[in-house]
Structures are given as C-alpha cells and as structure tokens.
Amino acid sequence: MHADIVVLPGDGIGPEIVSATLPVLAAVAKRYGHSFSFAEHDIGGIAIDRHGEPLPAATLEAARKADAILLGAVGGPKWSDPNAKVRPEQGLLAIRKALGLFANLRPVRPHASALGASPIKSHLLEGVDIVVVRELTGGIYFGDKNRSDTEATDLCRYSVAEVERVVRSAGALARQRRGHLTSVDKANVLETSRLWRDVATRVMREEFPDVTVEHQLVDSMAMHLLSRPRAYDVIVTENMFGDILTDEASMLAGSLGLLASASLGAGKVGIYEPIHGSAPDIAGKGIANPYATILSAALLLRHSLGLVEEAEAVEAAVSAALDAKVFTTDLAAPGQGVDTAGAARAVIERLG
Ligand code: ATP
Ligand code: MG
Fold this sequence. Notes:
- The chain is α/β, with parallel strands linked by helices.
- It folds into 2 domains: 1-102 and 266-352, 3-Layer(aba) Sandwich (Isopropylmalate Dehydrogenase), CATH 3.40.718.10; 119-253, Isopropylmalate Dehydrogenase (3-Layer(aba) Sandwich), CATH 3.40.718.
- It has 12 helices and 12 strands.
- The strands form 2 sheets. Strands 2-1-3-12-11-4-5-10-8-9 form a 10-stranded mixed sheet, with helices on both faces.
- Strand 6 (145-147) and strand 7 form a beta hairpin.
- The radius of gyration is 20 Å and the shape is globular.
- 47% of the residues are buried.
- The site of adenosine-5'-triphosphate has 15 residues, from loops.
- It catalyses: (2R,3S)-3-isopropylmalate + NAD(+) = 4-methyl-2-oxopentanoate + CO2 + NADH.
C-alpha cells in the first residue's frame, strides 16, 4: 500500500527520536512491499520560532490530508514563560481538536527485561497487557469555568454522543484483543458518570455482546490497577479520570521511554507519539530512548494503516532488542548503554 505520513518532530529530543524512527518505518515498507512518504512540518516551540504560532496553517493542512501523523514531543524551557501569549502545547491541543481526535490510547505492557524498573513487584507485573482509552474532548477540562473572590467552579459536561463514540472505539479494541472491557466512572456520586455508565452499558449490550463488560468506580480502579493489573484488558474512561489513571498505569511499565500512545477519532487518521515529553535535559546529546516512538509507529501501522502483521513485527523487534539488553542510558547500568541511533539499528536488525 501507499501511505502519506506527516512527521512532526517538534522540540527537544523530538527530532532525535523521530529521525531514529523513520528508518524503522522505511525498513517495514521495504520488507513488506509498501511505499510510505514522509513530509516534515513544524509544531510546538519550533513553529513559534519560525512562524509565530504553535500550529501553522501549513502543518494543519498537511495533517488533514495525511493517512497518519507521527509526532515527537513539544515544549521546553525556551517557551515556558508563564506570561507568554503562545505556548508549544497549544499546538498539540489545537491539532487534536481540529482533527476530531477524541480517544487517547495508551498500551501498557511491561517488558520482562525492564520489570525491575517499575516500583511495582515483578510477580504482579508478569503478563500485564492493558490498553487504557481516555476520552480526550469533553468533561471538566472543557466545561465553563468561573472564579470570584470567594469561590470557583468547573463545569463537568458529557453528551450521550461523546460517550457513545469513545465506548465504541474501546469496544472495538477489546473485541480485537482479549474481549474484556472495564468502564471506569464515579457513578455513585456524579451525574455525568451515571450517564457514562448508562450509555456504556447500552452501547456494549447492543453492539458488542461478545465483549464482557465490568464497571469500576475510579477510586477502586486506582487501587486495583496496582494490586491486580493482570485482571485488565481494555479500560475506558472519561477525560480527567483517564489523565490520572494513564499516568498511574505508566508506572507499571517502569520507564517513560517505553510507552507509546495513539490519539484517534472516527476516521483512520491519528496522531502517534511517545507519552514522554521533550526531555530538555538530554536534548541534543543523541542518547534519548527511541523505543516509545518506535512503538508509537507500530500503533500507527496498526490503527491508521491497518497493517497488523507489520505492527506486530515492529513490537516483536523492540521486545527482541530489549531481550538482548540493547538499552539506552535511561535503562542501562550507569556508564553503559547505546545511543539513540544504536537502539533504532538494533530494532531494524531484528525486524526479520
Ligand atoms: P512534559 O511536560 O512535556 O510531559 P515532563 O515534565 O513530563 O514533560 P519529560 O520531558 O517527559 O518530562 O522528561 C521527564 C524525565 O524523563 C527527564 O529526566 C527526561 O530526560 C526523561 N526522559 C523522557 N523521555 C525520555 C527518553 N525518550 N529517553 C530517555 N529519557 C527520557
Ligand atoms: Mg509529562
């Protein structure tokens, strides 16, 4: 197949991890007979510097026409003045919104050789394979906000349609995986959560009768995620609960440098990026861990291009590189480790 991939390196280590990842995609294309074109555009701080805005019109236009978007990271100390009128992160929020990306997927699958990096006991982590699906466009983050001298309010709002679409995405994902969905809410207290639970129950009964559904209150979910993480397959939840639970879930895997994400909407196009930030402390040194970005490229192959076998090959190659202890400095013993390009080469060599 042919695919047009828009590449948004962004700031800090973004350009380093993205340029380590493109040869992996090129190797996949060669091996499986596909043709991928890569078009680079600016987003974030670099876009502010070059164009005066974090999401230039040319970037958005290219993104709208693309089959998929691979992103590095945005932001850094240069643009972090709290009084600044424009900030790099606005570019990311704006592009997600413009493309209608409402579901953020974060797979959490601790790798055997990195288990020691997690603060959770290894015996609880073996076999953990979870995808958290966080709703991205609604809830308390986007409701009306008010502030007076004596009080403040944040309105939490969800429409039936917003809950339906994200539950549908999660249901479809659960069906492709182990057929189990956990929907997380706070239905004992919040009206939006009672709506969430009603809609999730109906959508799953009508459209995914083959997927088992469990409802969990967010407080007990926070506990169970650490005490019995193996019990979960796909977890779907609203925006703020998802924000908190995905950070918690990331600790199961240990290193930030191993966690990928996908932001998806109703169509095929999505934005794929590592969950970590621009790591200004190590930027420019060529030592950043590229695995999270390479694993994000695997999600791109699976979710936007429908290339499941290719996605699995990339994931297996990263696993094999980790098995062979090809570690960047964040995972390696002090004074050891390969550089960014070396880790990417190790993946390409193991692509089969
Ligand atoms: P943001 O606000 O953009 O999410 P953050 O404050 O969460 O950023 P990160 O940029 O994710 O911070 O970095 C947190 C720490 O993890 C830093 O010490 C950074 O060097 C390290 N880190 C992040 N990503 C990587 C990576 N790919 N390889 C190695 N170290 C990393
Ligand atoms: Mg962060």
